[in-house]
Write a structure and sequence with these properties.
Length: 381
């Protein structure tokens, strides 16, 4: 049952399905007098270019909405920065069910205040704090994304050696500093390590949740500040800088060979479960963009991609233009198949409520295919 092949669709099948949806949308929004789809089908395409593109697209869409054109668009196609603004349109319409609610003064004020979305804030202190959170988030994300069997083994060995040195007080020269090294610092490192481990597990379990990494980064930043505040005076005056270098890591391996063989096996096994989308800095980046563009969408800010078009009697489910979220597909070709040689191995890749896929790979149903069925709007854009 698990190996049953899933049905794939051709581009023509996808277009026919979308046509049926768009005809129904026109009927529900504009009644029986709605113009025929074949005579007036049109969409709005938003180009990429990061935050600057998102800002320009926001201005264009605001004007089109004021003129009543946005509501009549059948498609809203976007890529990269254009997707930031498109996601705002989609989520806001889902929440409010009205085009009049778009581009409210409150929403625009929030977007302006989040122009520097990685380090938002108006006051000096808020910028300093958010800058610290960004720095800590980058370090933790970098560490998570660099986890591999070899690096993980090195970290484990180094940590073991570090605690071994600390437990014997070899880093410190006075009784007070030795007490700090044997009692305080190990606990501080343990707290930071546990935070990082729980953060890693939370990212793997809740790949598409918004705000999870942000909250962990704030706790981690607070722990780092607290640790530095109490640690620096002792460390600067008492630390012997060369103590950790001798014997790392070969003596440890000689002392505990069976233990580290087990660690190596566990690290390799762990490597099969790591997910760069859950562990990389992309997650922090996505959360900050969602905070900037989707704050006004309330409980719709992290809605599932498949739920953007529910085919039921609720008029609000037909309100938004059908979203076409464009990404890039790069196919690997280890077998040398002529079908995928050269430029043919690159293609656009579509993410939409009904189907995900491309001409080269074929299309699958978003609602039923593993991974896509749990993909959220912020993750897609």
């Amino acid at each position: 049952m698990l190996n049953t092949p899933r049905k794939t669709y051709k581009r023509e099948d996808v277009i026919l399905d979308e046509k049926r949806l768009l005809e129904e949308r026109r009927r529900r929004l504009f009644g029986e007098r709605a113009p025929a789809l074949e005579d007036s089908l049109f969409g709005i395409a938003l180009s990429g270019g990061g935050i600057r593109s998102a800002t320009i697209n926001l201005g264009f869409l605001k004007v089109l909405n004021a003129c009543g054109i946005l509501k009549k668009a059948d498609y809203l196609s976007s890529v990269s920065g254009g997707g930031y603004t498109a996601s705002y349109i989609q989520a806001k319409l889902k929440k409010e069910g009205s085009y009049e609610a778009l581009f409210s003064g409150r929403d625009l004020h929030h977007l302006r205040s989040y122009g520097n979305y990685l380090v938002p804030g108006q006051s000096t202190w808020s910028k300093l704090w958010n800058g610290l959170v960004l720095g800590v988030a980058y370090v933790y994300s970098w560490a998570m994304s660099m986890i591999s069997p070899v690096l993980l083994i090195i970290v484990v060995l180094a940590t073991y050696r570090l605690f071994d040195l600390l437990s014997h007080g070899k880093w410190f020269k006075s009784d007070a500093a030795e007490w700090y090294g044997t009692s305080v610092l190990p606990k501080l490192l343990l707290v930071l390590g546990v935070l990082g481990l729980v953060h890693l597990l939370a990212n793997l379990v809740a790949k598409y949740a918004l705000g999870v990494s942000r909250r962990f980064n704030q706790f981690e930043a607070f722990a780092v500040v607290l640790g530095l505040f109490f640690s620096l005076p002792v460390l600067l005056s008492r630390l012997s800088p060369n103590a950790i270098l001798p014997g790392l890591p070969w003596e440890v391996l000689q002392d505990r060979p069976s233990l580290y063989l087990l660690i190596i096996f566990g690290a390799i096994l762990l490597g099969f479960f790591l997910n760069p989308n859950a562990l990389s800095f992309h997650r922090f980046y996505r959360n900050q963009l969602a905070e900037a563009f989707l704050r006004g969408a309330g409980d719709k800010r992290n809605m599932l991609l498949k739920d953007l078009y529910k085919q039921d009697g609720d008029k609000s489910n037909w309100m938004n233009p059908y979203p076409l979220i464009n990404t890039c597909l790069n196919l690997q070709n280890p077998s040398g198949d002529d079908k995928f040689k050269g430029a043919k191995a690159s293609d656009y890749f579509l993410l939409s409520p009904r189907f995900c896929g491309s001409k080269l790979s074929g299309y699958v149903e978003t609602a039923t295919y593993p991974g896509y069925s749990k993909m959220t709007l912020p993750a897609a854009t």
